[in-house]
Specification:
It is a single chain. This protein is mainly alpha-helical. 59% of the residues lie in helices and 6% in strands. Helix 2 packs across helix 3 and helix 3 packs across helix 6.
């Protein structure tokens, strides 16, 4: 039934696009790019919106490699959100929304430049708010699933100090006095926690992609992104890059 409904949705969107083209007498800007688990449609506009929120990404003439990276990131985000929605969770508060939006704007040279990019890709204030809300929900889910259960023991910190921190300090800061373990204990512990969370998230995303049905509708952006095989779960020609946790703030 889900497949039938999705097919009807795709046909309706295609028909709407054709009507828009006929009415405007011009080129259809938006197009369907991918579907995740027969439920989440990703469009070309979604890719442009993702790029518009990245200060260094060109949007007037987007590069193919940037579009492909945006697609992979959006697929990961959709997979995370689908898992997050299976569990009861606390949605973003108004204060969290305002803080996240302010942090996003601060990544750009100015408020005017930020607004120009949004207008250039047709991203409205309401749509931006929805994107920010989803990003916070995703962060909350990842933190709950991984950060809450990540533990680094004193023995692990001590071993990391001897095997990693000390050699790195001597290599990168020759002549500088080596701090004692107790002086950098919290710093090392935080670094190790983040590394574990990143590794666990990477493993989670690889498993989610392996079990997902990911249909690439735009073959020009399909290289390196999973495609379905037969009627089973999605399989890809290349997995997502390690360390590419879909954190978006």
């Amino acid at each position: 039934m889900r497949r039938v409904l999705l097919s009807l949705l795709l046909l309706a969107l295609a028909a709407a696009g054709a009507r828009g083209q006929a009415a405007a007498g011009g080129e259809v800007v938006d197009r369907m790019v991918a579907v995740v688990n027969d439920a989440e449609l990703i469009t070309y506009s979604d890719l442009l919106w993702q790029l518009a929120l990245q200060p260094d990404a060109p949007i007037d003439t987007p590069r193919r490699e940037d579009l492909r990276r945006a697609l992979e990131l959006l697929i990961d985000q959709r997979l995370v959100l689908q898992e997050a929605h299976k569990l009861p969770h606390v949605h973003a508060t108004e204060e969290e929304m305002k803080k996240a939006e302010a942090e996003l704007v601060n990544r750009f040279p100015s408020q005017a430049e930020f607004q120009r990019r949004l207008e250039r890709v047709g991203l409205t204030a309401a749509q931006l708010r929805e994107i920010v809300h989803e990003r916070i929900d995703m962060e909350k889910y990842l933190d709950f699933r991984f950060r809450s259960f990540t533990v680094v023991t004193p023995q692990e910190v001590e071993a990391y100090y001897k095997d990693v921190y000390v050699p790195r300090h001597r290599r990168t800061r020759p002549g500088v006095v080596l701090p004692e373990l107790k002086a950098v204990y919290n710093e090392i512990q935080s670094e190790m926690i983040e590394r574990k969370i990143e590794s666990d998230t990477d493993d989670f995303l690889e498993e989610a992609r392996a079990a997902a049905q990911i249909t690439i509708l735009d073959e020009s952006l399909g290289d390196g992104v999973q495609r379905p095989e037969g009627t089973g779960g999605g399989r890809g020609s290349a997995p997502p890059a390690r360390g590419a946790r879909p954190r978006t703030r």
